[in-house]
Design brief:
379 residues, mainly beta, six-stranded antiparallel beta sheet, 48% strand, disordered N terminus
């Protein structure tokens, strides 16, 4: 889920990273809770607060000859005080308090900007934290961390895993609030189909048996581990150890032909009423390049004066059943799937024979944030 934190951060004026005493005139680094919007695909009016813990590393003097670690894989816990009805993010504590390691209070050092924060949510289990690298040059997740794509069969989503979201923020001054927006390492895709038939619309006009598949041998179905070089790129654009799909594993979405799953093309006559193929929320995908897709579907109600089949067998019409069948029709374009982005494929069918379609891929930021804060990476 898309998540956002707002953090109040500060660090010691003496420039050291050793445990320091809390001084009255210093501003301590603290993390505060923020209301966040957590839509899957679009903004809603519902705001909730993130209570899922996260792990954070922080470096100061990043552009200097000797950048210093302020926090090294600190575990940040959400704590609620029911007596006073107050909640806060807390990282100060010891192993006796349930933390992975002893963690001390940190303070702003105004002589050592910029600061940079790297974070991951949810915080890995204490037994796994030692397997992660999150420092000023690299983010590295162990190969045991698995990401996988999702499929949708008749509206039922299966498979898929998105274990972690990441954040990277640079601070150039002491600020009361520093945003730590978390970004999805995965992509998402959705599919919409609507009819733009120029002829007279039949009285009974149904679309069904939709199947959307990846084309080619390079489609990635899973990723293990993750590594990002933070000296030349950012925390969001790294690499997975990938696993390719084969055969039926390339099917992303399909529906059957019973009445409950048929799309009424008389209704799906424009973009606002497009058929969402029984998956309005979209499917998790591993970020990758040059993805090509094909689609299959059947349409009932189109009247032609004879049976026919085109040369490659991808289009076939049966006059007796008034049904035209489309099998593995390829979308000409190929697409790159970037992390933290939703791709909505809008398929507009203008004619049914010869088949004339327009396909566009609309890009949507995954996270719609409630509040007047900047969520751009590195800002």
């Amino acid at each position: 889920m898309a998540v956002l934190l707002t953090a109040c951060v500060s660090c010691s004026t003496d420039g050291t990273i050793t445990p320091v005493d809390e001084h009255k005139d210093d501003v301590p680094m603290q993390f505060s809770q923020a209301a966040v919007n957590t839509p899957v695909t679009r903004a809603t009016s519902t705001s909730t607060a993130l209570t899922q813990g996260f792990m954070v590393s922080c470096w100061k003097g990043l552009n200097s000859a000797k950048p210093q670690e302020v926090m090294g894989c600190y575990e940040v816990k959400y704590k609620y005080d029911g007596w006073n009805n107050q909640s806060k993010w807390e990282y100060v504590g010891t192993t006796a308090d349930g933390y992975y390691k002893d963690q001390v209070q940190r303070y702003w050092d105004t002589s050592a900007f910029p600061y940079r924060f790297y974070a991951i949510t949810p915080c890995p289990a204490a037994t796994d934290i030692g397997s992660f690298v999150m420092n000023n040059t690299q983010l590295a997740m162990p190969s045991s961390v698995e990401f996988a794509y999702q499929t949708c069969n008749n509206g039922v989503v299966s498979g898929g895993a998105e274990p972690y979201c990441v954040s990277q923020v640079e601070c150039n001054s002491v600020q009361p609030y520093v945003a730590l927006p978390f970004y999805h390492l995965t992509s998402k895709v959705r599919f919409l189909i609507y009819n733009n038939y120029k002829k007279e619309i039949p009285t009974d006009f149904k679309l069904y048996n939709v199947k959307i598949k990846a084309v080619g041998d390079d489609f990635v179905k899973a990723g293990k581990g993750y590594t990002a070089d933070l000296t030349s790129s950012d925390i969001l654009h790294g690499t997975f150890e990938v696993e390719k799909a084969a055969g039926d594993e390339k099917t992303l979405l399909q529906t059957d032909d019973d009445e409950a799953r048929k799309c009424d093309l008389r209704v799906a006559a424009d973009r606002d009423h497009a058929y969402d193929c029984m998956n309005a929320d979209g499917l998790l995908m591993i970020p990758q390049k040059n993805v090509k897709l094909s689609f299959s579907f059947d349409v009932y109600g189109v009247v032609f004066d004879r049976d026919f089949e085109n040369e490659d067998g991808s289009i076939k019409y049966e006059k007796a059943t008034k049904t035209i069948y489309y099998k593995d029709v390829e979308i000409a374009e190929s697409y790159n799937w970037e992390p933290n982005t939703i791709y909505t494929y809008v398929i507009k069918v203008n004619e049914f024979y010869p088949l004339t379609i327009d396909v566009t891929a609309e890009l949507t930021p995954w996270t719609d944030v409630v509040g007047s804060i900047d969520t751009n990476l590195e800002k």
